TrEMBL record:
Enzyme class at the top of the EC tree: isomerase
Functional pathway: Carbohydrate biosynthesis; dTDP-L-rhamnose biosynthesis
Gene Ontology annotations of biological process type: dTDP-rhamnose biosynthetic process; polysaccharide biosynthetic process
Identification of the protein by name: dTDP-4-dehydrorhamnose 3,5-epimerase
UniProt keyword annotations, A-Z: Isomerase
GO cellular component: cytosol
Site (Participates in a stacking interaction with the thymidine ring of dTDP-4-oxo-6-deoxyglucose): Y138
Length: 176
């Protein structure tokens, strides 16, 4: 795997090291020792799959409060998304900054998201599947979010929102 730091402290884009032959290729998508060598969390307690029917669907911006804050490893395994993360760590040099990364079945990239970040994505095509590996179990009492269109962040989404849950549309304005 190839680990590329992003401009947000602690977040990485991960590209596969492919071993190719006439059959196709083989690549490791998770290896705890490689993550540990980068100083990244290796704790994975849950893996999730999100299926999204419609182009323009938006999910986010989600996070969990400490002590249930999550590290996430996100990969799009069918279709394509724009994945967005926001650094919500008040003591971080990249506090309140966001980045977007295109993740797709074609580019096979993953995004490593440290604790203290809000996460969301928008589908770029119909019929998208997104895999998540997370370091904490989902804890409803710790779950929270920020608005996808909050002016405190000024996120630029690539498409008009076609689908969003009532919960995601109703997150309060950021107060931090």
């Amino acid at each position: 795997m190839y680990f590329t730091p992003t401009e947000l402290s602690g977040a990485y884009i991960i590209d596969l090291q492919r071993f190719e032959d006439n059959r196709g290729f083989f690549a490791c998508t998770w290896e705890a020792n490689e993550f540990a060598a980068q100083g990244l969390s290796t704790n994975v307690v849950q893996a999730n799959l999100s299926y999204n029917r419609t182009k323009g669907t938006l999910r986010g911006m989600h996070f969990q409060h400490a002590p249930y804050a999550e590290v996430k490893l996100i990969r799009c395994v069918r279709g394509a998304i724009v994945d967005v993360i926001i650094d919500l760590r008040p003591d971080s040099e990249s506090y309140k900054r966001w980045i977007s990364v295109e993740l797709s079945a074609d580019n096979r990239r993953a995004l490593y998201i440290p604790e203290g970040f809000a996460h969301g994505f928008q589908t770029l095509v119909d019929d998208v599947e997104v895999m998540y590996q997370v370091s904490q179990f989902y804890t409803p009492s710790a779950a929270d979010g920020v608005r996808y269109d909050d002016p405190a962040f000024g996120i630029t989404w690539p498409l008009p929102v076609s689908e969003i849950s009532p919960k995601d549309a109703a997150w309060a304005a950021f107060a931090g």
